[in-house]
Amino acid sequence: MNAGMSRLLLTRLATAAGTLLFVAAAVFVTTTMLPGDVAQEILGQSATPEAVAALRHGLGLDRPPVERFLSWLGGLLVGDPGLSLVNGVPVATLIGGRLSNSLLLAAVTAAVSVPLALLLGVSSAMLRGSIYDRVVGTATIFVVSVPEFLVASLAVLVFAVKLRWLPALAQAPQGHGLLDLMRSFAMPIVTLTFVIVAQMARMTRAAVIDTLAAPYVEMARLKGAGPIRIVLTHALPNAIGPIANAVALSLSFLLGGVIIVETIFNYPGIAKLMVDGVATRDLPVVQACALIFCAGYLLLVMLADIAAILSNPRLRHR
Amino acid sequence: MTTPSPTLNAPLSKAPLAPTRFADAAPLVEVANLKVVARGEDGREFPIVKDVSFSVKRGEVVALIGESGSGKTTIALSVMGYARSGCRIAGGRVRLGDCEVTALSESGLADLRGRRVAYIAQSAAAAFNPSRTIMAQVIESALIHKTATKAEAEVKARALFTALALPDPDGVGDRYPHQVSGGQLQRLLAAMALITDPELVIFDEPTTALDVTTQIEVLKAFKAVVRDRDTTGLYVSHDLAVVAQVADRIVVLRDGAIREVGATGQIIEAPRDDYTRSLIAAAEPQPRAAAPLRETPAPLLEVTNLSAGYGGLNADGMPHFPILDAVGFRIQRGSTLGVIGESGCGKSTLARVVAGLMPAARGAVTLDGRPLPPTIAGRSREDLRRIQIVFQMADTALNPAHSVSKALSRPLTFYHGLTGAVLDRRVFELLDLVKLPRGLADRKPGELSGGQKQRINLARALAAEPDLILCDEVTSALDTVVAAAVLDLLVELRRDLGVSYMFISHDLKTVRAICDDIMVLYAGRKVQAGSREAMAEPPSHPYADLLTASVPEMRMGWLEGAGAHASNFIDPADKTKGGKLFSRSGCAFYPRCPLGIAGTCDRERPPLRVTPQGSEIACHRSDADLMSLTAR
Amino acid sequence: MTHHETPPPALAEAPPAGGPSTDSLSAPSSRRHLSFPKIGVVGMLGAMIVLFWLVMALFGNQFAPYDVGEILDADVFEPMSRLYPFGTDYLGRDILSRVLAGTRQTVGIALIATSLAALGGALGGLAAAVTGGWFDALLSRTLDALVSIPSKMFGLILVAAFGSSIPALILTLAVIYLPGCYRLVRAVAVNVAALDFVLVARARGEGKFHIMTREVLPNIVGPVLADFGLRFVYVVLLLSSLSFLGLGVQPPDADWGSLVRENIGGLPYGAPAVIMPALAIASLTIGVNMLIDSLFGRSLRRKGAA
């Protein structure tokens, strides 16, 4: 580690923090620009103006926007994003258990899909133009271009309706065994894995193919290096940056996929909470969930950039 | 097609190595009726190498020479059984010793490559894997083919580094490619090739990407190891003068077919083929007639004390990263100033500052006695019209979306307000002027050859009816024969239209051929300037002398005799080793100068003085001292 | 720089191979046809699918065998039959008719939103590339930050704020995809703006507008069109997802995503009412992908993936 590299990494961290702040402001501004009045909506059309004003005051809606933003931001920092407008429960409580459910779903999916996608991507790049490459290419482009709910529906049709291997809906695990846990989460994980693997395999393949076209790879070939040696010692070390980027971007598709999958399988996660929040216009819930997702995305992209910086020989060895 | 008959192949070069050396040896490489095809965008295959046959004997260096598209690299690669993506060896045989290369399987080829045949690529910077150390890559073939253990291979590599005159032979292997200069990387690539003692080494334009003063060092290193190891070589190049130094025999190629095969001496002294003759004529440009100077009281362009660069300005008004440092010169109406120097010397920046594309930090640009505002925004349309710029890369200088007539019409409308039939007529006149058929008017740049594109670029500049055209390496990207024709055109236009040129080039031969005055830049400073005649006479600035001595001449044995004094200099691009590339405090050239005086040259900036021959020189040394340098 | 001595063999003063030969008098228009990228069987198939759905978006109602809202049968979630080619929905309505009618919503909203995003992105990107300096920096930083909000999340936030009316949906989708368009246009335009011919135009004294529209724009049309197509696919997918979540097109209107949502109860029975609208989306997006792939090649796909 040298000074230039630490400076780059620090800059990268600062950029991420700045972006997150900007996103927080954007989320707050957008959600408070609501054309309707939340207090009016909660109380209904028949409420008296006095009652509405009292609720507005109670909710803090009559304070100036900057003050509200700052107190909201301060609350977020100490883990208190406020109360739900719908049922008055602290948002932190609502999010609590659901966040871990969603993280579990994402973690298991990532653990399955990253190795699978890298294998598919690297192997089809090595066998570029072969039947295998074309089959993988066609299958992945199909999965990438269809909506997640079609993949989910087809998965239910095949695994639950026709084969009856898995339950159609995800429930909180009935038993305590690992098998029960697996069974109850299987459908969401299968669906998400399909979507993520397709995305990641395509981008990995592209990154490796780019590197394989480099003149030093031709040089290695002219030194008599075999295909395994070429990929392992010449292509992959130089493709770490692009591959990390591909992994991060694909995992960020996971964030989007989770929204659909949690809804379709009725999975008690944070995305489902947010969708319900949007439907009921429960602003504090929507804001808090949105920020959690954005922070997750920024973290992924930042980790990928750091991997790219650390793997760059020009930065590592001055 | 010429099939070389063995009896005609006696080498005339390498006189000390008697011809008998090859007489009884069976050829190491035999290429017979080789055909290579490439697949076009429409999916159809077309030939790029057509029925080529030649042979290379053990210990012999054979050169494949030709212009771009001649198939020389393709042929060389097929000797390794390799065809680039989109290409395919479609017929013929390649034999290496007892081995039919064209019949080998992929794994058989892998055993051959790097072991029996090794390859030295044109761009070492691209051929080295950026994320592995140099040593790991140099010894890789030895480990792949198990010719040595890791420790043995490293010892051998260090010996090769020493033989190739690399500085710091013990430490250079631990570095990464980006930490080493281009000239050194090229020599390291040679070490990589020689690590397994291959029977044949393919040199693919190994010095083309280098500056001329670096090229001579690399060529000397190559020549020494080839001689000491009795290496058999296939040397691919477009440069006859370079090939004359290293090859025993030359195969002249054009459009994928052989035009002539002969011993080096015969090819350069008594070529039989017309195409070979035109190649030789173009490689040795003859001085064109100087322009008759029109006597005018004031110069057309006067640049005084010009400094420019990047980054903010220091307290003294100089940029943090200066590119040009107090440069001054004059261009008379109708004359040509040649600006010469190595890559990074600031010559292109000079053109940009004069054109207003980049503001000067200090100094003035005066056109016809009137100072020009520093930027385009400040200049009037008339100012802009009078100075036009033509760039090196003909490909990128023309908008690919615009037809030729559109490209030429725009300046006519913009500067002269021409429309309708007058405009069309003028477009045709411009095409006539640059000697292109009028039918090209509807073409897009993608449908033109490199030479045609450069003529259109020139025509577009002429459309403005300028007083001065800034030519930035306008012939450098062209094949020599095409470049020669463009040079002739430039000279003719100057004679007919009275236009002046600032002709920027890295090629001393070209500059000498067409320029009335020459200015030599080093690290952004003027080190010498004067008329073409004055510059040809000693005394010369030590850098100008090195530059002159480094330009290969088209005669055998030049390399052995030339530039003996140059070999002591540090590699100019090597910033990590020993001295710096140039110095800012005293004379810029001090770190490389054989005559540098410690205490003076590294402290005080040399004054410009005028020699008896009439050229300006920036040097602390006396004329007599400088004369002694040239006499060596 | 490597010296790739590959085709076409550029002869000394002759036009490159593959280009028109020496008959320099052939009309420029015929040459333009030659240079238009050829599309293979796959591309033709994609073009036909896209054309089919465009026609359906305009005249889908005329082709529908039944009235869109009419409850035809007491049996819900019927399988495919001669009477109901795509089966019936959860109320017993004809799915084929509803899919055809929904084309207008899906294709129409997505097309308008993508056009808005592309137009705004192209204008901003070109201006930023040609102007540079603080204008470029400010615009780029702001839009880069917006790109870092995942698109579905962005959609949810905007719907929470502005609701699900069709104009709000169009604007929502346009706002979400504008930063991506901007980034692509700026990236390709910056590359073009660094080329020598733009420098020549600047040195000639041309204004910014001329450089934007005459010098840069004609050279980025290909990538921008390809990006438009890919972006259209993303917009269709996002719109469908929003509708599927019940946050997109609202009843009584129904786009393809809403149709899937309405009938999701039929999934355990394997009813075509769920699968058919989803397949309609898939056919459209895959058709567009096939068309773009054969028109512009693979190289552009990755840039648009962000």
Automatic annotation (TrEMBL), chain A:
Entry GO CC: plasma membrane
InterPro entries per record: BPD_transp_1_N, MetI-like, MetI-like_sf
Alphabetical keyword list: Cell membrane, Membrane, Transmembrane, Transmembrane helix, Transport
Transmembrane segments: 103-127, 139-161, 181-201, 243-265, 285-310
CDD domains documented for this protein: TM_PBP2 (cd06261)
Origin superkingdom: Bacteria
Membrane topology note: Multi-pass membrane protein
Pfam family, one: BPD_transp_1
Protein location: Cell membrane
Family annotation (PROSITE patterns): ABC_TM1 (PS50928)
ABC transmembrane type-1 domain sequence ranges: 99-304
Gene Ontology biological process terms, A to Z: transmembrane transport
PANTHER family in UniProt: DIPEPTIDE TRANSPORT SYSTEM PERMEASE PROTEIN DPPB-RELATED, PEPTIDE ABC TRANSPORTER PERMEASE PROTEIN
Similarity section: Belongs to the binding-protein-dependent transport system permease family.
Protein name from the UniProt record: ABC transporter permease
Native source species: Azospirillum cavernae
UniProtKB/TrEMBL annotation, chain B:
ABC transporter domain: residues covered: 29-280, 301-548
Any single GO CC term annotated in Swiss-Prot or TrEMBL for this entry: plasma membrane
Matches recorded under PROSITE patterns: ABC_TRANSPORTER_1 (PS00211), ABC_TRANSPORTER_2 (PS50893)
SUPFAM superfamilies: P-loop containing nucleoside triphosphate hydrolases
UniProt cross-references to InterPro entries, sorted A to Z: AAA+_ATPase, ABC_transp_ATP-bind, ABC_transporter-like_ATP-bd, ABC_transporter-like_CS, Oligopep_ABC_C, P-loop_NTPase
GO terms for MF: ATP binding; ATP hydrolysis activity
Cellular location(s): Cell inner membrane
Record flagged with keyword Signal: no
Topology of the protein relative to the lipid bilayer: Peripheral membrane protein
Primary localization class, coarse: membrane
Entries under Pfam families matching the protein: ABC_tran (PF00005), oligo_HPY (PF08352)
Chain segments annotated as coiled-coil in the UniProt record: none
Gene3D superfamilies recorded: P-loop containing nucleotide triphosphate hydrolases
Signal sequence coordinates: none
GO BP of this protein: peptide transport; transmembrane transport
Keyword terms, alphabetized: ATP-binding, Nucleotide-binding, Transport
PANTHER family per record: D,D-DIPEPTIDE TRANSPORT ATP-BINDING PROTEIN DDPF-RELATED, TRANSPORT ATP-BINDING PROTEIN
Family per record: Belongs to the ABC transporter superfamily.
Name of the molecule in the record: ABC transporter ATP-binding protein
Organism: Azospirillum cavernae
Highest classification ranks of the organism: Bacteria, Pseudomonadati, Pseudomonadota, Alphaproteobacteria, Rhodospirillales
TrEMBL record, chain C:
Region called Disordered, residue ranges: 1-29
Protein name from the UniProt record: ABC transporter permease
Topology of this chain in the membrane: Multi-pass membrane protein
Major subcellular site: membrane
Domain ABC transmembrane type-1: residue ranges: 103-292
Transmembrane regions: 39-59, 107-135, 156-178, 224-249, 269-292
Coiled-coil residue spans: none
One example of a Gene Ontology biological process annotation: transmembrane transport
Protein family per UniProt: Belongs to the binding-protein-dependent transport system permease family.
Low complexity compositional bias, start-end: 11-20
Subcellular localization: Cell membrane
A Pfam family of this chain: BPD_transp_1
Keywords associated with the record: Cell membrane, Membrane, Transmembrane, Transmembrane helix, Transport
Gene Ontology CC: one annotated term: plasma membrane
